[in-house]
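Hello,

Our lab assistant flagged a job as stuck in the queue for most of the afternoon. It eventually completed. Since we weren't sure the result was trustworthy after the delay, we are filing this so someone can double-check. Below is the sequence as submitted and the structure that was eventually returned. Let us know if re-running is recommended.
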Amino acid sequence: MSTEPTGEIGYAAALEELQKILADLETESVDVDLLASRVERADELIRLCRDRLEAANLKVEKVVDALDSD
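-- returned structure --
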């Protein structure tokens, strides 16, 4: 699992790490001692991905609005 600060990774890397965490959590051999920290990290990554998607959506809307006004 990555220890890289959430704000410093890109969307693709965050999604990849999130998928790995999910795969780890789906196994029966989940280390209970690490469970809470993995869930917390997944929460951080989900928030990052949502923020990045929102930002991208706003940029696309601005471009489309600019094209419509021309």
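-- support follow-up --
The delay was a queue issue, not a problem with the job. The result is valid. Residues 10 and 52 are 9 Å apart (CA to CA). The helical segments are 11-26, 32-69.
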